[in-house]
Specification:
InterPro entries: DNA-bd_dom_put_sf (IPR009061), GyrI-like (IPR029442), MerR-type_HTH_dom (IPR000551), MerR_fam (IPR047057), Reg_factor_effector_dom_sf (IPR011256). The protein has two domains: 72 residues, Multidrug-efflux Transporter Regulator, Chain: A, Domain 2, CATH 1.10.1660.10; 156 residues, Multidrug-efflux Transporter 1 Regulator Bmrr, Chain A (Alpha-Beta Barrel). The chain has eight helices and 13 strands. It is α+β, with helices and mostly antiparallel strands.
Length: 270
C-alpha cells in the first residue's frame, strides 16, 4: 500500500491552504487517491507529490488552471517538455524585467538621497553620460498642451516594443530658433531601440539647477537659469532637459516636488 498523507499534512509540506487543495479536488485538477466514506477525510499518496509540485510551479509562472488541467489530462513527455521549456523562457524574461526594475528603483532611490546635497548648490555642473530617449512632441488639445495624452502615446509606443515602463519621465525644451520654441516629452531608455522618436541626449558637462515646487512655477527657475548662463558668459549646447526627481510617485504634496533642469554648456562653472 502506498504511503498516504492527509490533506492537512500535504498542505503543510507544500505551504498551501486547505482551500487550495480542496479547489483542486473539486475542479478535477488533482483528486485525492482515497477519500474516507465515513469521515470525508482525503488522502494523497507520495506519487502525487510530483504532480502537485508541477501544478504549483506552473501556477507560479502564470499558466491558468484550465490550461494546467488540460495538460494533466493529456500529458506526454514531449508535451510536458515543451511547456516546461516555454515557461523557463518566460521566467527568464520576468527575471530580466525585474532586474531592470530593481536597477531603476535603485537609481530613483539614489536621486532622492542626493536631495540633501542639492540644497547646497543653486547651480552646479556635472558630467552626464549619453542617453537614449523616446521623445515625442507634446500634443495640443484646443490650443493647450496635453501632457497626459502625450505620455499615453509614449507608453503605447513602448508597449509595442515590449519595453517595461518605469516612469523615468521628463521634458525637453528646444529654444532654437527662439521664435519657435518646441517642447517634447520623453522616457529614458535603458537600451537603445530603432524608432523614429528615439533621440540621443549627448554626453557632456551639464549646468544643472533644481526647482522646488509645482510644475506651474517652473518658468521662474528657467528665468534664473538663463540669467545665470548669460551673466557668466556661458554657451548652451543644445536643448534644456527637465528630470522629475521628486514627483507624485514620491509625494502627494506638490510643494515638495523637485525638478532638475539642465543644459549642456561649452565650459564648466565653479
Amino acid at each position: 500500500m502506498d504511503l498516504q498523507f492527509t490533506s492537512g499534512q500535504v498542505c503543510k509540506i507544500f505551504g498551501i491552504t486547505k482551500q487550495t487543495l480542496l479547489f483542486y479536488d473539486k475542479t478535477g485538477i488533482l483528486k485525492p487517491k482515497y477519500k474516507d466514506p465515513n469521515n470525508g477525510y482525503r488522502y494523497y499518496t507520495l506519487a502525487q507529490f510530483d504532480l502537485l509540485y508541477l501544478i504549483l510551479s506552473l501556477r507560479e509562472t502564470g499558466i491558468p488552471l484550465s490550461k494546467i488541467k488540460s495538460l494533466l489530462a493529456q500529458r506526454t513527455v514531449n508535451e510536458t517538455s515543451t511547456i516546461l521549456k516555454n515557461q523557463i523562457s518566460e521566467i527568464q524574461n520576468k527575471i530580466e524585467n525585474l532586474q531592470t526594475a530593481k536597477s531603476r528603483l535603485y537609481k530613483n532611490l539614489i536621486q532622492i538621497k542626493q536631495i540633501e546635497e542639492m540644497k547646497d548648490y543653486e547651480f552646479r555642473v556635472k558630467a552626464v553620460a549619453e542617453q537614449h530617449l523616446l521623445a515625442m512632441p507634446v500634443q495640443y488639445v484646443n490650443g493647450f498642451p496635453d501632457y497626459y495624452l502625450t505620455l499615453l502615446k509614449i507608453t503605447e509606443r513602448m508597449t509595442s516594443y515590449s519595453i517595461p515602463f518605469y516612469w523615468n519621465v521628463g521634458c525637453i525644451t528646444t529654444l532654437e530658433p527662439l521664435e519657435d520654441v518646441k517642447e517634447s516629452m520623453f522616457v529614458a531608455l535603458d537600451n537603445a531601440i530603432v524608432d523614429q522618436y528615439v533621440r540621443l541626449k549627448p554626453a557632456g558637462n551639464y549646468l544643472c539647477t533644481y526647482h522646488n515646487g509645482p510644475y506651474d512655477t517652473l518658468d521662474d527657475t528657467y528665468d534664473k537659469l538663463l540669467t545665470y548662463i548669460k551673466s557668466n558668459q556661458l554657451m548652451m549646447l543644445g536643448d534644456l532637459y527637465e528630470n522629475y526627481i521628486i514627483n507624485n510617485l514620491a509625494t502627494e504634496d506638490e510643494t515638495s516636488y523637485i525638478t532638475e533642469i539642465s543644459v549642456a554648456i561649452s565650459n564648466g562653472v565653479k
